[in-house]
Amino acid sequence: MLPSSPLTKSSANQKCVLICQNRTCLSQGAAKVLTAFQTHPVPDYTAKQTGCLGQCGNGPMVLVLPDNVWYCRVQPEEVPAVVERHLRGGQPIRAMLSPHFHEKFT
């Protein structure tokens, strides 16, 4: 189940990439991940900063909506692959999926 605090009903229906910018994820490099998504724009998707996604210690956390795909420990150099393979190509990157939300794929 999705944590309810950072998501609104409207954001769950939009094509967006939420990048946690809470304290723990920030200490793990989330600001650079957000910048990387912002410098690799994809039509119809918006990169947005968000508060805690409830996965402290697994960050930086990235949530792709409306696909409901959770990526953990995302590094800035991995962002181009997420953009090309997932956002443009429609194929989530299994090796990067959060096992908490995607156990059967990891």
Commentary on this structure:
By secondary structure, the protein is α+β, with helices and mostly antiparallel strands. The chain has a single domain (13-105), classed as Glutaredoxin (3-Layer(aba) Sandwich). It is built from four helices and four strands, in the order αβααβββα. The protein has helices spanning 9-13, 23-27, 30-38, 79-88, and strands spanning 16-20, 46-50, 62-65, 69-71. The protein has a four-stranded mixed sheet with strand order 2-1-3-4. β3 (62-65) and β4 (69-71) form a beta hairpin. The chain is globular, with a radius of gyration of 12 Å. Residues 1-10 have low confidence and may be disordered.
How many angstroms separate the termini? Answer: 18 Å
User: Under the CATH scheme, which architecture would be assigned?
Assistant: 3-Layer(aba) Sandwich
Residue share in helix: 25-40%
Number of helices: 4
> CATH topology, what is it called?
Glutaredoxin
Largest sheet: 4 strands, mixed
Overall domain count: 1
Q: Got a strand count?
A: 4
| Strands ordered across the widest β-sheet | 2-1-3-4
CATH class: Alpha Beta
Mean pLDDT: 88
- Runs in which pLDDT lies below 50 for 5 or more consecutive residues are 1-10
Shape: globular
Q: Which structural class should the secondary elements be placed in?
A: alpha+beta
Would you list the SSEs in sequence order as H and E?
A: HEHHEEEH
Strand content: 15-25%
CATH superfamily: Glutaredoxin
